[in-house]
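ESCALATION

Customer reports they have been waiting on this structure for their group meeting. Please prioritize. Original submission:
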Amino acid sequence: PPVDSGAEVVVETSHGLQFPLTETSSGVYERDIPVVASDKYRLHIRTSHGMEYFSDFVDVKITPPIDSVYWVPQSDGVQIYVDTHDPANGTRYYKWEFIETFEYNSAYNSTLLYIDRQVFPRPLSERIYICWRTDVARHILLGSSARLSDDVISHYPITFLETASMKMSRKYSVLVQQTALTEAGYTYWQQLEQTTEELGGLFDPLPAEVKGNLHNATNPAQQPMGFFSAGTVEESRIYFSFLDLPLNLRKKAPTYCVADSIPVGLLETYPDYTLLISEYGVPFVDGYFTSSPGCIDCRLQGGTTTKPDFWE
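Update from on-call: job pushed to the front of the queue and completed.
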C-alpha cells in the first residue's frame, strides 16, 4: 500500500492521555508507550491530505509466555512448531509472526583482492564467503482454543524448511513472536487471511467484506481497512545447525558454479575488483582462479557479512 508521510498519529487512552508517534521513516510511526492493563486505547490518525480516522477503544490483552519453539525432522525437510497455554483460560485467540535469520556461504572463498593491477591478500574484515540473511515472514498465522476446555495450543506449525534449503546450509535461527487477540481481532485476521491467502473459490469472501475497527471521521461512508489492537508480545528464539540434522536431511542444493582461470599475463586486462578465489602454480604463480560473482560474493544472495548481535 502507498505510504502517507507527514501524518499525525496519536495513541489515546480512555482517560484522555495522548501519545503522539514520531515518523521514523516514510510512512512509519513509532513510540514507546507505557501500557496500563486496566486502561483502554485507541488509534487516532490525521493524514497529510486532511483525512481523519479513529479506531474503537480496545482492551489491553496480556499475552501468555511461549512454552516452547522446536523443530521436528520430516522425510522431506524440517517443521517448526510452537506450543503455548494460558493457565487462566483467558486468552483463547492467538496470532504468531516469525523472523528467520540464517548463515550461509558462497560456493568459493575469495582470499585475494585485485586493485590497481595488483593482487593482495583479502583481509578477514572484507571476506565475502560467509553471510547472514534475515527474512520477515508475511504469512498470517492464527490459532484458537475457543472450542477446547483448556486454553492450550500444541504442535502449531509455524513454518516448513525443505530439504537442501539454503536456510539450513550452515545455521538457522527463527524468532517467533506471539500475540493474544480479542475475538474481534481474531475474526478480522481470519477474514484477511481468507481474502489474501486462500482466494480462488467461488464462495470465498471478497476483500470489501473484511471490516476492522477503524472508522473514517471525515467520510463515514468510507470503510477503512485495518485493525487496532493493544497488548503485549512474547518472543522465543531457537537455533539449529546443518550438523544437527539427521543424515537423510544433510543435503545441499547444487550451485552449478565452475571455477575458471586467469593466466598471470592476462590479469592486467581485467578490471579492478575482479573477484579472485586463489592463485595456482608452484613454485611460481601461473595464474588465478575466478568464477561468476554470484558464486563468490555471498552478499549477492541477499545477505550481509555483518554477524547479527544475537547470533550464537
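Sent to customer with the following note: The CA atoms of residues 5 and 27 lie 5 Å apart.
Escalation resolved.
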